[in-house]
Amino acid sequence: MALAADDLLSVTNGSLTQNSTYGDNETAVTWNLDRHDRGVCTLWEKLAALDPKFGRPEKFISWPEKTRWISVFVTLVDYPDFVDHTEKVSGDRRGTGGAVTVKDSGWDLGFIIHSKLFFPNQSESVDVFWAYGLRGIAPPWGVTVLDLPGRLPLPAKISIEVLPPIDLREELGGACGDPDKGYELVTGRMQDALRELNEARALPLIG
């Protein structure tokens, strides 16, 4: 690309979603830890090698095993209770507030509820929201490992299991509009799966 002295060039030097991979309700995500083809991050490395004013990209992208994160896009059909409850406790209407953080979550969970219509053909009975987990390890009082001096990682064996989809209308019938019933069903299934994964470990934490 030929540039004149008065031209301005905008560059995206790195991205949180570079080398993203995708899963679905039936398939777990596979990690892309390629250190050679990292798109805009590789471009950033090349620019930084030419001039130090472009910063130190290695501080941000050299540890993908520890800095990777997970996000999900959730579709709720005929179940406005979750969004209504979130609006009530946050004081923000859907699409107008910032991210909601689950402060005691060991995964640093957060979510953002989108306004309607997010998609052009979105039905009035459908709500969508985006959620993410930053993989922090936190005890109940909210201090994470990343807050400790030196940021030393704990050795941990991470196990991922994709559970079958849960259809609240099929499982709960007439009670599918009860958020407490839905919460108990979903968290119960998750807890059962976690218990089975824990029993399969040879040693606590490190597996």
Give an overview in words.
The protein is globular. It folds into 3 domains: 16-64, no CATH class; 69-153, D-Amino Acid Oxidase, Chain A, domain 2 (2-Layer Sandwich); 155-207, no CATH class. It is an alpha+beta fold and 207 residues long. Mean pLDDT is 78; it is low at 136-153. A hairpin with an 8-residue loop joins strand 2 (100-101) and strand 3. It is 27% helix and 11% strand. The chain has 6 helices and 4 strands.
Low-confidence spans: pLDDT under 50, at least 5 residues?
136-153
The largest beta-sheet arranges its strands as 1-4-3-2
Our measurement of the CA-to-CA distance between the termini, rounded to an integer number of angstroms, reads 52 Å
- Largest sheet, strands/sense/barrel: 4 strands, antiparallel
Structural class: alpha+beta
Order of helices and strands: HHHEHEEEHH
**Number of H/I helices:** 6
The CATH architecture assignment of the largest domain turns out to be 2-Layer Sandwich
CATH class of the largest domain: Alpha Beta
Strand segment count: 4
**Percent in strands:** 5-15%
Give the C-alpha Rg: 21 Å
Q: Roughly how much helix do the residues carry, as a percent range? A: 25-40%
Q: Shape from CA axes?
A: globular
What integer is the average pLDDT?
A: 78
Number of domains: 3
**CATH topology annotation of the largest domain:** D-Amino Acid Oxidase, Chain A, domain 2
